[in-house]
Structures are given as C-alpha cells and as structure tokens.
Amino acid sequence: MARITASVYTSHIPAIGAALDLGKTQEPYWQPVFKGYEVSKTWMQHNKPDVIFLVYNDHATAFDLDFIPTFAIGTAASYAPADEGWGPRPVPTVIGHPELSAHIAHSVIQQDFDLTIVNKMPVDHGLTVPLSLMCGQPPANNFAWPCPVIPFAVNVVQYPVPSGGRCFALGQAIRRAVESFDEDLNVHIWGTGGMSHQLQGPRAGLINKAFDNAFLDQLIADPAAAARIPHIDYVREAGSEGIELVMWLIARGAMADVAGGKPPRVAHRFYHVPASNTAVGHLILENT
C-alpha cells in the first residue's frame, strides 16, 4: 500500500520566489533564509518521495471571489505555473498524479469531507516556492521537479475559513486515503503558508516570534492542542495572514502518531525573520 513517510512545513513567501528567480540568493539580506534550507535540500535528495501531496492556498490565480472552494484537490495530469501579474515563474510545469488524486478525492469524500475536484488550474507561488526551497531551482525548459505533485488548495483568504480542528481531522482522512491506495508509493505531505504576518492595516508588518516558535513546539509535541487554537488567536497573535497556519495542521494530522503510532522524528527545524515582511518557518518531520 501507499504510505506517508514524512511531512514538510514551510512558508511560501512570494518574495523568496523572486529572490530565487532573479539570482539574489547570495545577497546579504537573503543569505540567512536560503542557508536554512540547505539541510532540507540534502534531506530531499536522500528521502525522495514518489509523490508530494502539497497543501497551499491560491492567491487569486486559479480562483477568485466569484468562486471560493474551501478545499480543492487537483486531479489533472499537469499544472502550469501561474502568471501572478509579472509573468509565470521560470520553473518547470508541475506533473500531477491523477490516479492517486482521484483515489484520495473518492476516499475523503466518503469520509464526509466535501472536496472540490479541479481538473485544470494554474499553480502560483504558494505551491512553486516550497518546491524551489526544498528541491532547488531547476530550469523551466531543461529539467523537471523530482516527482509528481498533488495540489490541494485551502481557502484561508476569504472568511469563513476552515477551523484548525477541521483541517487536523482532514489530515487524518487523507492519511487513511493514502494508505488504502493499492500501490507501493512513498508519499510526503507538505503544509505551507505562514508564519506570522499581516499585509494591510495599522498592524501591517506584524511578526510575532514568540507565537511562531510556540506554535512550532506545539505542532511537534501536541498537535491536537494546536488544532484547538481559535481563529481569533491567529488573527490577534499572528496577524491577519497568520491563519495560513491551519494548513500546517492538515499535514500534521496525516502523521502516524496521531493514529496511535510513534512520535515523529524532527529532521530539521528553522526559523528566521524577516523575509519581506514575513516570518519564515520551516519544519521536517519523519514517521518512525
């Protein structure tokens, strides 16, 4: 059967993608950010998955205010990088895994989670920046990402947004779906977005190091407690865009210890401020 062997958590800041694309990674401002992912790129080389299930939020490229799915799973064979206003990122097209996508959709819907099934959509920086951070920056025309990717978009832009508890339970349903797929696949599940940041209003630029690191501690040791954090606490403590952290709970809910297995091993943890006007958080957990 297929199995989830690891979960990855990372910010997906668009300015990081711009720094990569414009060759600025060695500039003094950006060096500390990218140094924090050197361990991750080495880890990926030694722990290459067959499929990545990547949880992210769309930034008005595949969806807009006319159509806002709470949870949307991509079931296409491929996904082109989106044009977010300054042209698509110069990275490869994302190859999907339609068979596993369709299986997960069927299984999760049968577990009473309503998913929107998307057969065609562009993918923006929310998905491509994490791939670049973890896998390096392959040229768009010469290479491919190291494995197929299943995009899973969550609405954390327009209220009402799903609760942390709902996301945590969804991760558990996704794990059950993956484990019921009758093919020997090594699957990673990634939760992206965050950490603390606010992009508008009087608190624009807010970063809360104490909240971010407490969230990382809790995500590792007591994810059920993290899942109980109410929306208002994310907004109050982590800024209006801090709500993106509920997507990390989907990935955490899919880990083996939540279903009675052993606690995960922390393969890497990294935190840095600032990158643009955002805190960068990153974590790799392995099932043991």
Largest sheet: 8 strands, mixed
Q: Radius of gyration, rounded? A: 17 Å
Query: Terminal Cα separation, in Å?
Result: 17 Å
Enumerate the strands of the largest sheet in spatial order, edge to edge or round the barrel.
6-3-7-2-8-1-10-9
- CATH second-level architecture: 3-Layer(aba) Sandwich
Kindly report the CATH topology: Protocatechuate 4,5-dioxygenase, Chain B
| Low-confidence regions | none
* Apparent shape: globular
Q: How many DSSP-defined strands? A: 10
Description:
- With 288 residues, this protein is of the alpha/beta class.
- The protein has helices spanning 14-21, 31-35, 38-46, 98-110, 125-135, 164-179, 209-221, 223-227, 231-238, 246-253, and strands at residues 3-10, 51-56, 71-74, 78-79, 94-95, 116-118, 149-154, 186-192, 265-275, 278-286.
- It has an 8-stranded mixed β-sheet, with helices on both faces. Strands 4-5 form a two-stranded antiparallel sheet.
- A hairpin with a 2-residue loop joins β9 (265-275) and β10.
- α6 (164-179) runs parallel beside α10.
- 47% of the residues are buried.
- The mean pLDDT is 96.
Keywords:
288 residues, alpha/beta, Protocatechuate 4,5-dioxygenase, Chain B, 8-stranded mixed β-sheet, two-stranded antiparallel sheet, 10 helices, 10 strands, 20% strand
